[in-house]
Design brief:
Blueprint: E1 21-29, H1 33-47, E2 54-59, H2 64-70, H3 76-84, E3 88-93, H4 107-114, E4 119-125, E5 136-142, E6 152-156, E7 163-167, H5 173-194, E8 198-203, H6 211-225, H7 227-230, E9 234-239, H8 240-249, E10 256-259, H9 261-271, E11 284-286, E12 291-293, H10 312-324, H11 328-344, H12 358-368
Parallel strand pairs: 1-2, 1-3, 3-12, 5-10, 8-9, 8-10
Antiparallel strand pairs: 4-5, 4-11, 6-7, 11-12
Keywords: Amino-acid biosynthesis, Lysine biosynthesis, Magnesium, Metal-binding, NAD, Oxidoreductase, Phosphoprotein
Organism: Torulaspora delbrueckii (Yeast)
Enzyme class: oxidoreductase
Length: 369
């Protein structure tokens, strides 16, 4: 995990002066989100009273199930409660339809826009003492634009009489400067912790010369313009397809990776295969006013309701949320407890080759806190 390396870097709100009793929004969403978000809540309840922290919780709705019930995937009340009452939140998973449904769009994408959650930080790290390959990278994904702005259209081509679908890819200088800065700040903190750091900018500018070309240009400019601050961080670039190849062949070559929205999404999900399962990879959606922890896995409808989903990604995301809110010590406690569970290799869910239930894993981790 990131340990204390990036706490307080991304948020501009003065969390250090905020009340120690924090209000946390709980948004299970769909599928196994309803099983793993309670795990994050149990961890926070266990930490309550420790490190001077106390937590209050607000249950909130969002997702495909909410859309089917109310006609809205992201109710306005959920947005307002997060904006006005919560310092942090935990988001589970969304089960989105594979075909177009009128009026439906992903609530997590909408939340990122509504709350200004411009960075999705996804650490992928193996645990020493396990069978996983040595991996220790942080994928920093721009969270607000690229193809995820969801500007699509379908029309009939007059020349052929057949349908054509088009999607707009947006890369802006403002968003790119913002994501490059947090990625370099993370690299700088890892330099202080590890004694070395590398930033790898991932793009496809050999084909997308304007959009990805701008992303590449601005990332380099942020680095070059702040050489006095970031000069000791090594700077690299990698075309996204060769990045995928190298990531699987030699993951030890990568430290901090910054990428546009789509590439960051794909790279981080693929990197999960290096550490055993998507069920162990966390993320934090970071903005200026709030941090939302979110496991990288999906809603997994094939196992939903069976009580065997892996809670570790959510528990680690809970630690990330606390870390970005400036509470590094309890975050480290969470990371150590999870690492101890994985190192012992006894209590684990089926995705990691075990036969334990979700709650058995939660209880084992709680016993190690």
């Amino acid at each position: 995990m990131l340990r204390s390396a990036i706490g307080r870097l991304a948020t501009r709100r003065a969390y250090a002066s905020a009340p120690k009793s924090m209000v946390i929004g709980l948004i299970p969403g769909d599928g196994i989100g309803k099983e793993v978000i309670p795990a994050g809540k149990q961890v926070l309840e266990n930490l309550s009273g420790k490190h001077g922290l106390n937590f209050d919780f607000i249950d909130l709705q969002a997702g495909w199930g909410t859309f089917q019930e109310t006609g809205k995937a992201l109710p306005e009340q959920t947005v307002q409660v997060l904006k006005n009452q919560c310092q942090g939140a935990l988001f589970g998973a969304v089960q989105s339809p594979t075909t177009k449904v009128e009026g439906y769009s992903s609530p997590i994408v909408a939340l990122r826009k509504e709350l200004g959650l411009y960075a999705n930080v996804r650490p992928v790290k193996s645990v020493e003492g396990t069978k996983d390959r040595p991996v220790d990278m942080v994928i920093v994904r721009e969270n607000t634009e690229d193809l995820y702005i969801k500007l699509e259209k379908t029309y009939v081509d007059k020349a052929t009489g057949t349908r054509v679908a088009e999607a707009t890819k947006r890369i802006s200088e403002v968003a790119t400067r913002r994501i490059a800065t947090i990625a370099l700040d993370i690299a700088l903190q890892r330099l202080k912790t590890n004694g070395h750091a590398t930033l790898t900018v991932t793009h496809k500018s050999n084909v997308l010369s304007q959009s990805d070309g701008l992303f590449r240009e601005i990332c380099k400019d942020v680095y070059e313009s702040n050489k006095d601050k970031y000069g000791q961080v090594a700077y690299n670039e990698q075309i996204v397809d060769s990045m995928v190849y190298r990531m699987f062949r030699e993951p030890e070559c990568f430290d901090v990776v910054v990428a546009p929205n789509l590439y960051g999404d794909i790279l981080s999900d693929g990197a999960a295969a290096l550490v055993g399962s998507l069920g162990v990879v966390p993320s934090a959606n970071v903005g200026p006013e709030i941090v939302i922890g979110e496991p990288c896995h999906g809603s997994a409808p094939d196992i939903a309701g069976k009580g065997i989903s892996n809670p570790i990604a959510t528990i680690r995301s809970t630690g990330l949320m606390l870390e970005f809110l400036g509470h590094n010590k309890p975050a480290q406690d969470i990371y150590r407890a999870v690492d101890a569970n994985l190192r012992e290799d006894k209590v684990k869910t089926p995705d990691l080759g075990g036969n334990s239930t979700t709650q058995q894993v939660v209880e084992d981790i709680l016993s190690k806190l």
